[in-house]
Design brief:
It is a single chain. The protein is an all-alpha fold and 71 residues long. The protein contains 4 helices and no strands. Helix 1 crosses helix 2. The two termini are 19 Å apart.
Amino acid sequence: MRLSQFWELMEQEFGGPYGRSLAHSHAIHALDDRTASEAIEAGEPVRAVWWALCDDLEVPPERRLPAERRA
């Protein structure tokens, strides 16, 4: 997953401003209590950060893919 895809998914699921705020403020236990932004900056794979964030916020599996890929 590219970083641009991560931001597209964040906007799709949470909305633009809230998604950005969430990525910079919500500590994710599975990522050593780092925010999504901190984890990405530290070199964590973007896809792993997205899935950890979704797990932490209980995003249903069917909403974790881009809208055009949902069946």
